[in-house]
Amino acid sequence: MKKTTPLLPLFEQFIKDSKTGKRLKKNGEKITQGTINNYTYVYRNLVLFCEKSQFELRLCDYHKLTKRERISEKNYWKKFYKKFTEFLYKKGCYDNYVGANIKQLRTFFNWLAHDKELATGNYQRLFYVRKEKISILVLSPDQLKFLIHNEDFHNLLTPAEQRIKDAFVFGCTTGLRFSDLYQLTSKNFEQQENNWYIKIRSKKTKTYTSIKLPPYAISIYKKYKPDRVKQTIFKPVSLFIFNRTLKEIGKKAAFDTPIEINREKLGRLKTTTSTSLRFYDKMSSHMMRRTAITTLLILGMPEHLVRKISGHSPNSSSFNRYIQYAQVYLDKEVDKVYEKLVE
Questions:
Q1: Does residue 329 surpass a pLDDT of 70?
Q2: What is the mean pLDDT of residues 110-116?
Q3: Are 36 and 22 in contact (CB under 8 A)?
Q4: What sign results for the dihedral spanned by CA atoms 176, 182, 187, 193?
C-alpha cells in the first residue's frame, strides 16, 4: 500500500516560508504581501473544496510507486483538477480567477519539488491555466476633463471625496498604481526651470519612471504638498475606502451609463447587460493606470513612448488591449464627424 502525506499542512508551510523570507523570488527579493494574500486565498479555497466534496488531498512519493500506481496517481490529479475547477466555477468564479488559483498551485508544487525535494511526479503540468480577455473600462477624455476642471462639481463633494478625487485625477494622469500613488513624497517631485517632473521607482515592477506633469497635476501637488519632506502627498487611505469613495464620486458625477460585462467560463463567453450595473459601479483604482495609458494613445502619443511611461514590453498582450481600445474610441469619434457631413 502506497504511503501518503497530507497536502494542506505543506501548503501552510509554503505560505509561512513565503511570509518569513525563507522562500524568496528567483532574484532574491522577498515575496510581496499581495502575493502571499493570493496564496492564502488559494489555501482557503482548497480547505473549503475538501470539506464540500470530501476530497482527500495528499501526496505520494513518486519514486516509490509502481508503474500501475503512477498511472493511478496521474488519474488522481486529473480528477482533482476537474473537481476543483468545477467547484470554483460553481461558486461563480470566471476563467481569470480559476486560472490564477491553478497558477498558484503550480508554484506550490514547484516549491515542493525544488525546496522540499519531494518527488511529486510533476503532475501539476496537467493543470491548465485559463485566461480570459476582459474588456478594459477607462474614463473617456471628456469624463477625465470633467473631473479635472469642473469647480462646481468639486465643491459639491465632501473634503474626503475631494482629496480622493484629486488623487484619482493625478493617478489617471501619471498612470501610477495605487501603491505608488500613496507613497509619493516631495522627494519624488523635481522642478527643472518652468517644468515639473515626477520621478518614481515602481513598488511592483522596480522600474524607474520620469513623467512631466501638466499644469493641473502640478496644482494638485502644490495643494497637498506637506510641510515635511518625508510625509506623503496624499493622506493615507485604505484601498477599500478609496474604491468605495470613487464609486460615490462617479455616481455624483452622473457617470451612470449602463455597461456590458463580458466574462468567460471554460473559454466560453458569458455576456451580461444589466440596467442596474452602471459605469460608476466599476470605478476603482485600476482605472487610473488604464485611463492614463489610453488617454495618451488617444491623444496621439507614439506607442513606444507610452510604453516607456507605462513600463510595458514591446510584445505585451495587455498593452495591445489598450491600443485596441484607443483605436475603437478614435473610430467612433471619426464616425461622429462623418455623420455630420452626411446631414
A1: no
A2: 94
A3: no
A4: positive
Q: Which three cell numbers stand for residue 189?
A: 517631485
pLDDT of residue 338: 66
Contact 230, 185 (CB under 8 A): yes
Model pLDDT for residues 24-79, shown as the tens digit of each residue: 988 888 998 889 999 999 999 999 999 999 999 999 999 999 999 999 999 999 99
Strands of the sheet with 195-201, listed across from one edge = 189-192, 195-201, 208-212
DSSP letter for each residue of 328-340: HHHHHHHHHHHHH
Contact 87, 96 (CB under 8 A): no
Domains of the chain are 4-126 (no CATH), 141-342 (1.10.443.10)
The amino acid sitting at 106 is R
| Beta carbons of 25 and 79 less than 8 angstroms apart | no
Beta strands in 202-278, from DSSP E residues, in sequence order = 208-212, 258-265, 268-278
The one-letter amino acid at 174: T
